Amino acid sequence: QVRLIEYGGGLVQAGGSLRLSCAASDPTYSRYATAWFRQAPGKEREFVASIRWSGGSTYYSPSVEGRFAISRDRTGNEVYLQMSNLKPEDTAIYYCAIQGVGARNYNNWGQGTQVTVSS
């Protein structure tokens, strides 16, 4: 019931950086966590990182830990994914998702933003 929109995708060279942003149309929407997922062609969607709405606890996929950082602004509504030391295998469509309070899993999804990393 909440619309999400992602920004920041683009084309970068290996070793470069990008910052993705995600914001919800309704900042009052009750949520448990916000996460980033990605899906590369021919591969299943995979979890990248998440941040708890309350407390700010974070979790990362081992494939990106140490290179990516998830954070939020002072309002708590806009969530970022800072990506550094990008690798060609990071190429994918990146999706923002929210797990609403009371939901078993992520139940609100953005439209996705393309990240392409060249060699």
Task: Name a few traits of the molecule.
globular; mainly beta; single chain; 7-stranded mixed sheet; 4-stranded antiparallel sheet; 119 residues
Q: If you had to describe this structure to a student in words, what would you say it looks like?
A:
The structure is a single chain. By secondary structure, the protein is mainly β. Helices cover 0% and strands 51% of the residues. It is built from no helices and 11 strands. The model has no long low-confidence stretch (mean pLDDT 94).
Task: Set down the secondary structure blueprint.
Layout: E1 4-7, E2 10-13, E3 18-24, E4 31-39, E5 46-52, E6 58-60, E7 68-72, E8 79-83, E9 92-100, E10 108-109, E11 113-118
Parallel strand pairs: 2-11
Antiparallel strand pairs: 1-3, 3-8, 4-5, 4-9, 5-6, 7-8, 9-10, 9-11
Q: Helix-strand pattern, N to C? A: EEEEEEEEEEE
Q: Pairing-aware structural class of the strands and helices?
A: mainly beta
Helicity level: under 10%
The gyration radius over C-alpha positions equals 14 Å
Distance between the amino and carboxyl termini: 39 Å
